[in-house]
Design the sequence.
């Protein structure tokens, strides 16, 4: 008798919860986003950065302060470029008369307007903006002591 009573209580609970009703409303179709057939990681026109670039730098160095090298220009030589990837050498003059030359590699972003660079030694990096065919700005971030950040404004000299 107890099991009949338990089944009856379960049936009443199921009816009250609506478990026995059937949904007659048709389901709303899901929105479908078309998938592009091909996605290109290359901008329509890849800027050609091969050539020699030179320009002054402004920035700030820990323990030294603000710096402005209007009278001394850094030189960047982009020697090779394959699609969006480029490589070359950078020469940076110092106040004491020495010049540091190092290799670097970079990648032009998909928008064709910005780029990222890594210097091989002392392992620094930077971001840049392509302002025109013959003008770029490059922000260097030096993480070794003394830490500094510099903005180089390069113009192509060919």
Sequence:
């Amino acid at each position: 008798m107890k099991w009949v009573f338990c089944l009856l209580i379960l049936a009443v609970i199921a009816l009250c919860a609506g478990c026995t009703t059937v949904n007659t409303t048709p389901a709303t179709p899901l929105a479908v986003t078309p998938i592009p057939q091909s996605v290109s990681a290359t901008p329509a026109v890849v800027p050609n950065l091969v050539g020699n670039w030179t320009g002054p730098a402004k920035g700030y160095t820990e323990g030294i302060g603000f710096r402005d090298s209007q009278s001394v220009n850094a030189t960047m030589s982009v020697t090779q470029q394959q699609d969006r990837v480029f490589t070359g050498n950078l020469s940076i003059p110092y106040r004491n008369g020495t010049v540091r030359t190092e290799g670097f590699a970079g990648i032009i972003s998909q928008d064709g307007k910005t780029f990222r660079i890594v210097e091989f030694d002392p392992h620094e990096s930077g971001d840049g903006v392509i302002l025109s065919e013959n003008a770029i700005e490059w922000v260097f971030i030096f993480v070794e002591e003394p830490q500094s950040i510099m903005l180089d404004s390069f113009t192509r000299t060919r």
User: Anything to note?
Assistant: DSSP finds one helix and ten strands in the chain.
